[in-house]
Design the sequence.
């Protein structure tokens, strides 16, 4: 369908199109005037995304779309609607109860019926890129609309506070019982550690172990020194058995040295007298006896020195054995103290863990206890609803604009539909499309002013419709 055909259809069907257009406008106007006026009251609340000091640990530090959507769902929930009904005491109104019986035949509860009725006219929308939520209510009475909007806001504030306080109360009771158990565990751990320290006589286990370790090191040093001394005395004793007269102790002994000097003088005199007087002379015999006595005394003194080395070696070996036994006893004592310290450390760790658990539970208990007593939430009323001065529906101007647009489309649609069901030939182009043959001539209407003398433009159009070119026409 070409645009010229479309215009010819509208020109032919203009009465029907105009009738449909005017009828739609009239219907829209009547409905807009007949419909009762609806007033919309809007109240707004703002969410404080900064957590209060009591809930700084439990609540996030920023709002997000999920949080805003959750708050919207809370406002439109049945719990808030039921609270509105209870706060306004509408379920006690006799007129409203009669309306409920007529509408539901007494089935269900009046609170549920009122809540569903209120929710139908409630609209909750969060503002874009902000923490403000707008609560609007639509009703025929502006004061009633404002009252319901404010009632929903108040019920939402109370519900939001309950949703925070009720879990805090439950957690507070839970942490209270857990704190008692943790306190009992802490007291038992403290009692076990005290009894263990009293039984083992522990005051400062680390200091005692340090002292005993120092004593063990001292005994070890003494043992090493004494073992060296015992080894030296044992070596001297072994050397004394073969050549005692060449030992340092013998050589440095003053008595033995004096006796050896006397022996040397007596042996020299004996040799001198023996060469002069002979072996049988009484002086020689006496002098020989003196030399023998000196040698005996030297042997006796040398034996005494050798025996003293043996006694010293025996004493040193005995001291080594005693010191080694003391060292072993000290080592066992330290090992026992370390075992006691390890056992005490286990009890001390149990006490520390019990203390930490109790402190943590006590902290959470104090926190939840304070939260359960909170009277403020993180939601505040930004602006309460006031009775609107102008109605929001029906909007006559907007409805008429929409009716003009829709009526125009509907009028055109009716004209096209009528043309489809009752097809007419309205132009030469319709004939060409219908018979698929060129047009020989076009007869004007009888009412035309000029039946003869076509203009050059009309002749040219007729020639083009008949299939002649301009060149052929001039020829």
Sequence:
């Amino acid at each position: 369908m070409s645009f010229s055909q479309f215009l010819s259809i509208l020109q032919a069907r203009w009465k029907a199109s105009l009738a449909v257009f005017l009828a739609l406008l009239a219907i829209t106007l009547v409905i807009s005037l007949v419909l009762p006026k609806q007033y919309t009251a809007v109240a707004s609340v703002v969410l404080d995304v900064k957590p209060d000091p009591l809930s700084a640990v439990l609540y996030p530090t920023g709002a997000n779309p999920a949080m805003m959507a959750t708050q919207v769902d809370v406002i439109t929930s049945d719990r808030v609607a039921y609270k509105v009904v209870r706060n306004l005491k509408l379920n006690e109104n006799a007129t409203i109860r009669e309306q409920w019986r007529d509408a539901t035949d007494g089935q269900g509860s009046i609170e549920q019926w009122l809540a569903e009725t209120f929710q139908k006219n409630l609209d909750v929308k969060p503002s874009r890129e902000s923490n403000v939520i707008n609560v609007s209510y639509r009703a025929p009475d502006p004061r009633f609309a404002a009252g319901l909007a404010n009632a929903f806001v108040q019920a939402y504030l109370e519900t939001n506070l309950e949703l925070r306080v009720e879990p805090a109360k439950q957690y507070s009771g839970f942490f209270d019982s857990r704190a008692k158990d943790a306190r009992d565990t802490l007291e038992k751990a403290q009692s076990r550690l005290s009894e263990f320290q009293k039984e083992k006589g522990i005051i400062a286990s680390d200091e005692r172990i340090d002292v005993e370790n120092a004593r063990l090191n001292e005994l070890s040093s003494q043992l090493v020194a004494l073992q060296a001394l015992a080894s030296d005395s044992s070596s001297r004793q072994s050397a004394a058995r073969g050549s005692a007269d060449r030992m340092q102790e013998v050589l440095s002994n003053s008595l033995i040295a004096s006796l050896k000097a006397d022996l040397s003088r007596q042996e020299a005199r004996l040799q001198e007298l023996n060469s002069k007087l002979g072996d049988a002379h009484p002086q020689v015999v006496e002098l020989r006896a003196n030399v023998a006595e000196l040698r005996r005394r030297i042997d006796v003194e040398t034996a005494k020195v050798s025996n003293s080395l043996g006694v010293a070696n025996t004493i040193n070996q005995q001291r080594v054995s005693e010191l080694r036994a003391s060292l072993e006893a000290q080592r066992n004592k330290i090992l026992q103290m370390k075992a006691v310290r390890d056992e005490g450390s286990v009890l001390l760790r149990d006490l520390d863990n019990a203390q930490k658990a109790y402190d943590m539970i006590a902290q959470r208990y104090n926190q939840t206890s304070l939260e359960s007593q909170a009277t403020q939430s993180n939601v505040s009323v930004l602006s309460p609803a006031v009775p609107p001065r102008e109605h929001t529906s029906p909007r006559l101007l907007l409805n008429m604009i929409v009716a003009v647009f829709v009526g125009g489309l509907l009028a055109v649609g009716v004209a096209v539909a009528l043309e489809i069901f009752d097809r007419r030939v309205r132009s030469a182009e319709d004939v060409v499309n219908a018979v698929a043959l060129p047009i020989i001539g076009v007869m004007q209407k009888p009412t035309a002013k000029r039946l003869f003398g076509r203009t050059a433009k009309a002749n040219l159009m007729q020639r083009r419709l008949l299939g002649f070119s301009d060149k052929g026409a001039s020829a």
Residues 205-372 form one domain. The CA atoms of residues 39 and 392 lie 5 Å apart.
